[in-house]
Amino acid sequence: DPSCVQGKAVVSTQSTGIIDVKKTWEKLLLAARVIASIENPADVCVISSRNYGQRAVLKFALHTGATAIAGRFTPGTFTNQIQAAFKEPRLLVVTDPSADHQAIMESSYVNIPVISFCNTDSPTKYVDIAIPCNIKSIHSVGLMWWLLAREVRRMRGDTPRTIEWDVMPDLYFFREETKEEEEVAEVPEVQPAQDAYNAAPQVPTDPFAVAAAEPLAAAAEPLTMIAPASTFPAKEEWVAEPATGADWGAEAGGTDWGADAAVDWTA
Prior knowledge:
Layout: H1 2-6, E1 10-12, E2 17-19, H2 21-36, E3 44-48, H3 51-64, E4 67-70, E5 91-94, H4 101-109, E6 114-118, E7 129-132, H5 138-156, H6 177-183, H7 195-198, H8 207-213
Helix pairs in contact: 2-5, 3-5
Protein backbone atom coordinates (compact mmCIF):
# COMPACT_ATOMS: atom_id res chain seq x y z
CA ASP A 1 0.00 0.00 0.00
CA PRO A 2 1.67 3.30 -1.01
CA SER A 3 -0.01 5.17 1.86
CA CYS A 4 1.89 3.03 4.37
CA VAL A 5 5.25 3.88 2.79
CA GLN A 6 4.92 7.66 2.63
CA GLY A 7 2.28 8.20 5.30
CA LYS A 8 0.09 11.22 4.76
CA ALA A 9 2.16 12.48 1.82
CA VAL A 10 0.55 10.00 -0.59
CA VAL A 11 -3.13 9.69 -1.36
CA SER A 12 -3.73 6.17 -2.64
CA THR A 13 -6.23 5.29 -5.29
CA GLN A 14 -6.93 2.03 -7.03
CA SER A 15 -3.67 1.87 -9.02
CA THR A 16 -2.08 5.34 -8.76
CA GLY A 17 -0.38 7.17 -5.91
CA ILE A 18 -0.84 10.95 -5.82
CA ILE A 19 1.85 12.88 -3.95
CA ASP A 20 0.88 15.88 -1.86
CA VAL A 21 3.11 18.76 -3.01
CA LYS A 22 2.67 20.56 0.33
CA LYS A 23 4.12 17.58 2.19
CA THR A 24 6.95 17.43 -0.32
CA TRP A 25 7.85 21.08 0.34
CA GLU A 26 7.73 20.58 4.12
CA LYS A 27 10.08 17.59 3.95
CA LEU A 28 12.34 19.53 1.60
CA LEU A 29 12.66 22.40 4.09
CA LEU A 30 13.34 19.94 6.91
CA ALA A 31 16.12 18.31 4.90
CA ALA A 32 17.59 21.71 4.03
CA ARG A 33 17.71 22.66 7.73
CA VAL A 34 19.54 19.45 8.55
CA ILE A 35 22.08 19.98 5.76
CA ALA A 36 22.63 23.63 6.70
CA SER A 37 23.28 22.66 10.33
CA ILE A 38 26.42 20.71 9.36
CA GLU A 39 29.40 22.96 10.14
CA ASN A 40 31.68 21.56 7.46
CA PRO A 41 29.85 21.33 4.11
CA ALA A 42 32.26 18.63 2.91
CA ASP A 43 30.89 16.28 5.60
CA VAL A 44 27.66 16.02 3.60
CA CYS A 45 27.88 13.19 1.05
CA VAL A 46 25.48 13.17 -1.91
CA ILE A 47 25.16 9.96 -3.92
CA SER A 48 23.49 8.97 -7.15
CA SER A 49 24.21 5.74 -8.97
CA ARG A 50 21.49 6.37 -11.54
CA ASN A 51 22.35 8.36 -14.64
CA TYR A 52 19.40 10.70 -14.13
CA GLY A 53 20.83 12.06 -10.89
CA GLN A 54 24.58 12.07 -11.48
CA ARG A 55 24.70 15.52 -13.01
CA ALA A 56 22.39 16.84 -10.29
CA VAL A 57 24.58 15.63 -7.42
CA LEU A 58 27.69 17.07 -9.06
CA LYS A 59 26.01 20.47 -9.41
CA PHE A 60 24.67 20.25 -5.86
CA ALA A 61 28.18 19.55 -4.56
CA LEU A 62 29.54 22.46 -6.58
CA HIS A 63 27.01 24.97 -5.24
CA THR A 64 26.89 23.79 -1.63
CA GLY A 65 30.40 22.40 -1.02
CA ALA A 66 29.25 18.83 -0.40
CA THR A 67 31.10 15.66 -1.42
CA ALA A 68 29.62 13.95 -4.48
CA ILE A 69 29.76 10.27 -5.43
CA ALA A 70 28.35 9.98 -8.94
CA GLY A 71 28.22 6.53 -10.47
CA ARG A 72 28.87 3.16 -8.92
CA PHE A 73 29.21 3.17 -5.13
CA THR A 74 32.28 1.19 -4.05
CA PRO A 75 31.36 -1.25 -1.27
CA GLY A 76 33.24 -0.49 1.94
CA THR A 77 33.48 3.27 1.36
CA PHE A 78 31.99 3.92 4.82
CA THR A 79 33.19 0.76 6.62
CA ASN A 80 36.57 -0.32 5.18
CA GLN A 81 39.29 2.00 6.44
CA ILE A 82 42.01 0.34 4.36
CA GLN A 83 40.79 1.44 0.94
CA ALA A 84 41.74 4.83 -0.49
CA ALA A 85 38.12 5.90 -1.06
CA PHE A 86 37.21 5.61 2.62
CA LYS A 87 34.98 8.46 3.86
CA GLU A 88 33.43 9.41 7.18
CA PRO A 89 30.54 11.73 6.34
CA ARG A 90 28.14 13.10 8.93
CA LEU A 91 25.13 13.10 6.61
CA LEU A 92 24.10 11.13 3.55
CA VAL A 93 21.75 12.30 0.80
CA VAL A 94 20.74 9.78 -1.88
CA THR A 95 18.65 10.01 -5.02
CA ASP A 96 16.99 6.60 -5.13
CA PRO A 97 16.77 4.24 -2.12
CA SER A 98 16.51 1.22 -4.42
CA ALA A 99 19.55 2.02 -6.56
CA ASP A 100 21.64 3.37 -3.64
CA HIS A 101 20.79 0.56 -1.23
CA GLN A 102 24.48 -0.33 -0.66
CA ALA A 103 25.29 3.15 0.61
CA ILE A 104 22.19 3.21 2.83
CA MET A 105 23.06 -0.19 4.26
CA GLU A 106 26.62 0.83 5.12
CA SER A 107 25.41 4.10 6.66
CA SER A 108 23.29 2.08 9.07
CA TYR A 109 26.43 0.26 10.25
CA VAL A 110 28.23 3.49 11.19
CA ASN A 111 25.18 5.49 12.37
CA ILE A 112 25.05 8.04 9.54
CA PRO A 113 21.65 9.75 9.10
CA VAL A 114 20.15 9.40 5.62
CA ILE A 115 18.04 11.80 3.57
CA SER A 116 16.49 10.34 0.44
CA PHE A 117 14.14 11.26 -2.36
CA CYS A 118 11.45 8.58 -2.38
CA ASN A 119 8.72 7.62 -4.78
CA THR A 120 5.40 6.05 -3.82
CA ASP A 121 6.89 2.54 -4.08
CA SER A 122 10.39 3.21 -2.74
CA PRO A 123 11.67 1.31 0.33
CA THR A 124 12.26 3.60 3.31
CA LYS A 125 14.27 1.24 5.51
CA TYR A 126 17.17 3.06 7.25
CA VAL A 127 15.95 6.36 5.72
CA ASP A 128 15.54 9.10 8.34
CA ILE A 129 14.02 11.84 6.16
CA ALA A 130 12.08 10.76 3.07
CA ILE A 131 11.21 13.50 0.57
CA PRO A 132 8.21 12.25 -1.48
CA CYS A 133 8.60 13.06 -5.18
CA ASN A 134 8.76 11.47 -8.60
CA ILE A 135 12.26 10.01 -8.99
CA LYS A 136 11.51 8.31 -12.31
CA SER A 137 11.54 11.53 -14.31
CA ILE A 138 14.66 13.37 -15.46
CA HIS A 139 13.15 16.81 -14.88
CA SER A 140 11.66 15.90 -11.52
CA VAL A 141 14.97 14.61 -10.11
CA GLY A 142 16.89 17.64 -11.35
CA LEU A 143 14.29 20.08 -10.04
CA MET A 144 14.26 18.52 -6.56
CA TRP A 145 18.04 18.71 -6.27
CA TRP A 146 17.93 22.33 -7.48
CA LEU A 147 15.27 23.27 -4.90
CA LEU A 148 17.27 21.58 -2.15
CA ALA A 149 20.47 23.38 -3.15
CA ARG A 150 18.69 26.73 -3.27
CA GLU A 151 17.16 26.31 0.19
CA VAL A 152 20.49 25.21 1.66
CA ARG A 153 22.20 28.29 0.27
CA ARG A 154 19.44 30.53 1.56
CA MET A 155 19.61 29.06 5.06
CA ARG A 156 23.37 29.44 5.15
CA GLY A 157 23.12 33.03 4.01
CA ASP A 158 24.96 32.54 0.73
CA THR A 159 21.96 33.63 -1.34
CA PRO A 160 19.49 36.18 0.12
CA ARG A 161 15.83 35.37 -0.25
CA THR A 162 15.16 38.81 -1.68
CA ILE A 163 17.38 38.04 -4.68
CA GLU A 164 16.54 35.38 -7.22
CA TRP A 165 19.17 32.64 -7.57
CA ASP A 166 20.90 33.08 -10.91
CA VAL A 167 21.43 29.33 -11.45
CA MET A 168 18.83 27.78 -13.74
CA PRO A 169 17.29 24.36 -12.99
CA ASP A 170 18.31 23.19 -16.45
CA LEU A 171 21.88 22.71 -15.22
CA TYR A 172 20.66 19.94 -12.92
CA PHE A 173 18.84 18.03 -15.66
CA PHE A 174 20.35 14.92 -17.15
CA ARG A 175 21.21 15.33 -20.83
CA GLU A 176 21.19 12.35 -23.13
CA GLU A 177 24.15 11.82 -25.43
CA THR A 178 21.98 11.72 -28.54
CA LYS A 179 20.59 15.19 -27.83
CA GLU A 180 24.06 16.59 -27.21
CA GLU A 181 25.27 15.22 -30.52
CA GLU A 182 22.34 16.81 -32.33
CA GLU A 183 23.04 20.20 -30.76
CA VAL A 184 26.66 20.21 -31.88
CA ALA A 185 26.94 22.39 -34.96
CA GLU A 186 28.22 20.58 -38.02
CA VAL A 187 31.40 21.91 -39.57
CA PRO A 188 30.60 23.26 -43.07
CA GLU A 189 32.49 21.65 -45.94
CA VAL A 190 34.74 24.03 -47.84
CA GLN A 191 34.03 23.87 -51.59
CA PRO A 192 36.92 24.64 -53.99
CA ALA A 193 36.69 27.64 -56.29
CA GLN A 194 35.07 27.23 -59.71
CA ASP A 195 38.29 28.27 -61.50
CA ALA A 196 40.10 25.33 -59.99
CA TYR A 197 38.20 22.91 -62.22
CA ASN A 198 38.98 24.84 -65.46
CA ALA A 199 42.62 25.54 -64.69
CA ALA A 200 45.23 23.66 -66.73
CA PRO A 201 47.20 21.05 -64.86
CA GLN A 202 50.59 22.19 -63.75
CA VAL A 203 53.54 20.11 -64.97
CA PRO A 204 56.14 19.57 -62.29
CA THR A 205 59.56 20.93 -63.22
CA ASP A 206 62.90 19.40 -62.40
CA PRO A 207 65.24 22.00 -60.83
CA PHE A 208 68.34 20.11 -62.02
CA ALA A 209 67.17 20.12 -65.62
CA VAL A 210 66.42 23.82 -65.47
CA ALA A 211 69.87 24.57 -64.05
CA ALA A 212 71.59 22.48 -66.77
CA ALA A 213 69.70 24.25 -69.58
CA GLU A 214 70.78 27.72 -68.49
CA PRO A 215 74.16 28.82 -70.07
CA LEU A 216 76.92 29.74 -67.71
CA ALA A 217 77.90 33.42 -67.85
CA ALA A 218 81.54 33.94 -68.81
CA ALA A 219 83.39 35.75 -66.10
CA ALA A 220 85.48 38.71 -67.17
CA GLU A 221 88.14 38.03 -64.60
CA PRO A 222 89.07 34.80 -62.88
CA LEU A 223 87.44 34.46 -59.54
CA THR A 224 90.08 34.45 -56.81
CA MET A 225 89.85 34.58 -53.12
CA ILE A 226 90.94 37.94 -51.75
CA ALA A 227 92.15 37.99 -48.18
CA PRO A 228 90.43 40.57 -46.04
CA ALA A 229 92.36 43.60 -44.88
CA SER A 230 94.19 43.11 -41.62
CA THR A 231 93.12 45.18 -38.67
CA PHE A 232 96.46 44.85 -36.84
CA PRO A 233 99.18 47.57 -37.19
CA ALA A 234 101.96 46.90 -39.69
CA LYS A 235 105.19 45.51 -38.21
CA GLU A 236 108.80 46.01 -39.31
CA GLU A 237 109.94 43.64 -42.06
CA TRP A 238 113.02 41.68 -40.99
CA VAL A 239 114.33 41.08 -44.53
CA ALA A 240 114.17 44.74 -45.43
CA GLU A 241 117.49 46.51 -46.16
CA PRO A 242 119.00 48.61 -43.38
CA ALA A 243 118.45 52.33 -43.43
CA THR A 244 122.17 53.04 -44.09
CA GLY A 245 122.01 51.40 -47.49
CA ALA A 246 125.11 49.26 -46.83
CA ASP A 247 125.44 45.79 -48.26
CA TRP A 248 126.20 43.20 -45.61
CA GLY A 249 127.62 40.83 -48.19
CA ALA A 250 130.11 43.37 -49.51
CA GLU A 251 133.76 43.21 -48.39
CA ALA A 252 134.78 45.53 -45.59
CA GLY A 253 137.08 48.33 -46.81
CA GLY A 254 137.06 46.93 -50.36
CA THR A 255 139.93 44.46 -49.59
CA ASP A 256 140.19 40.74 -50.05
CA TRP A 257 140.56 38.93 -46.72
CA GLY A 258 142.41 36.03 -48.33
CA ALA A 259 145.13 38.21 -49.97
CA ASP A 260 148.28 39.44 -48.21
CA ALA A 261 148.42 43.16 -48.62
CA ALA A 262 151.96 43.65 -47.25
CA VAL A 263 154.05 40.74 -48.81
CA ASP A 264 154.15 39.69 -52.40
CA TRP A 265 154.94 35.98 -52.32
CA THR A 266 155.35 35.60 -56.03
CA ALA A 267 158.39 37.94 -56.22
